[in-house]
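Review session, final week

We close the course with one last complete record, chosen because it touches almost every idea we covered. It is Negative regulator of flagellin synthesis, a protein from Bacillus lumedeiriae with 87 residues. Go through it on your own first, then we will talk.
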Amino acid sequence: MKINRTGVSGINPYQKQFHKPHGPKKPSEAQTDKLEISSAAKGMQEVSKMTKERTEKIARLKQQIAKGEYQPNPEKIAEGIVDFYKK
């Protein structure tokens, strides 16, 4: 019995990979790391600044309340509530 080569004519398709040079890449071809900060992340950083200001304001109010110096203005409180619910 005789077996004939059929299909790809006996050529190894993976043989081309053996002939490629695997030397080091040029520095211009080497990839470098890159970091980009999104606008959402930048917005989050600004929120943290606001949080710091709020904590300072709360600390001042607590001191005023502890000393008995805090005098709330009911009209401003009412305006703030109305403005909040109008938006």
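Two points worth writing down before the exam:
The helical segments are 15-18, 39-67, 74-86.
The chain is about 55% helix and 0% strand.
Good luck, everyone.
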